[in-house]
Amino acid sequence: MESNFVILTAADDWTPYLERFSGLDVYYSREYAMMFAEMEPGVAEAAYYEDEETRIFYPYIKREIPLFAGAGYDIVTPYGYGGPHLEGNDDSIVPFYEKFRAYCLSQRIVTETVRLHPVLGNERYLDRVLDVGYIRKTTGVKLGRPYEEVRRDYSSMTDRNIKKAEKLGLECVVGGPEDLDRFLELYVETMDRNDALDLYYFDREYFVRQMTPTPLCESRLLFVLHEGQYIAGVILMLGQRFAHYHLGASSTAHLHLRPNNLLFDRMVREALAHGSEVLHLGGGYREDDGLFAFKASFTGGHHYRYHIGKNIYDRELYEQLTERARAIGPLNEGYFPLYRGIVTA
């Protein structure tokens, strides 16, 4: 058969294409891409490719380049993990990118930034067509086995902290839409405590949309209660194969009760009941930091490698935009694309 290459917009129905795959993760739906396209801002698109042996699906966000209106566009994967998902022959990534490159050049797309999927390990074929660089480890709970066996992977300290939390009367419950404001209050407190960047302060509408089921994801809101008070919460995303810890929140005044230990254990139970293969917990802010160590205390050394892929489609325009940005102010030389890396006071 001849290869088939299609670009889908946010106005198109992606469902017939999604149904052709067996392992698309939660990050690949139209709804998810549209949600984060509004935050970038940009527009959601997806590329679909098919040949005799292979199918590829790739959602991304097409953004106008800031400060230089009309100069062109760049593309980035939605928040989280993604990149081209391939089922079939890995070699097909080359003809897919030949067609995708031609499309990008026709649309004046200057660069591409791809947050690769650690659990899927799509860097194994994308390093042929992207400049792929390792960022840091992530970690996940290997499921597909009895809970008692999974729990043996917990560190001894984590196991003790779960028992301590239970002894103190903490309990986990599944929340509903009526509990979103409780979670949002805890989430804002957590972001404030961690001096988070503005981009992590999602508004209420984001949480409403995140909790709305998509063809690829069911999000679940979990809470820890102490004496009737909501003291910690998490959004768990349940997909076709994998579950993901998405966003967590906790009350500063109750951290000494170790609610997060109980919360993460409940995520394991929920993911097991859903039939997930892996509960992916993500990584830390830096390699092997305290956040990563906490997550890894549940996973028994089941780690993954997170990479970012980069492409420059129009080198001449890239250099021109970079020089124009440099004239505005100093640049963060480690940022990509560099023309977006103007350092602000």
UniProtKB/TrEMBL annotation:
- What is the superkingdom listed in this entry's lineage? Bacteria
What InterPro entries does the entry give? Acyl_CoA_acyltransferase, BioF2-like_GNAT_dom, FEMABX, PG_Glycine_Bridge_Synth
Q: Any keyword Cytoplasm?
A: no
Q: Specify the enzyme's EC class, one word.
A: transferase
Gene3D superfamilies given in the database record: 3.40.630.30
Q: Where is the BioF2-like acetyltransferase domain?
A: 159-285
Q: Print the organism lineage.
A: Bacteria, Bacillati, Bacillota, Bacilli, Bacillales
According to UniProt, the name of this protein is Lipid II:glycine glycyltransferase
Give the catalytic activity: beta-D-GlcNAc-(1->4)-Mur2Ac(oyl-L-Ala-D-isoglutaminyl-L-Lys-D-Ala-D-Ala)-di-trans,octa-cis-undecaprenyl diphosphate + glycyl-tRNA(Gly) = beta-D-GlcNAc-(1->4)-Mur2Ac(oyl-L-Ala-D-isoglutaminyl-L-Lys-(N(6)-Gly)-D-Ala-D-Ala)-di-trans,octa-cis-undecaprenyl diphosphate + tRNA(Gly) + H(+)
List keywords of the entry alphabetically: Acyltransferase, Cell shape, Cell wall biogenesis/degradation, Peptidoglycan synthesis, Transferase
The EC code for this enzyme is 2.3.2.16
Q: What is its main location?
A: cytoplasm
Where is the protein found, in the record's own terms? Cytoplasm
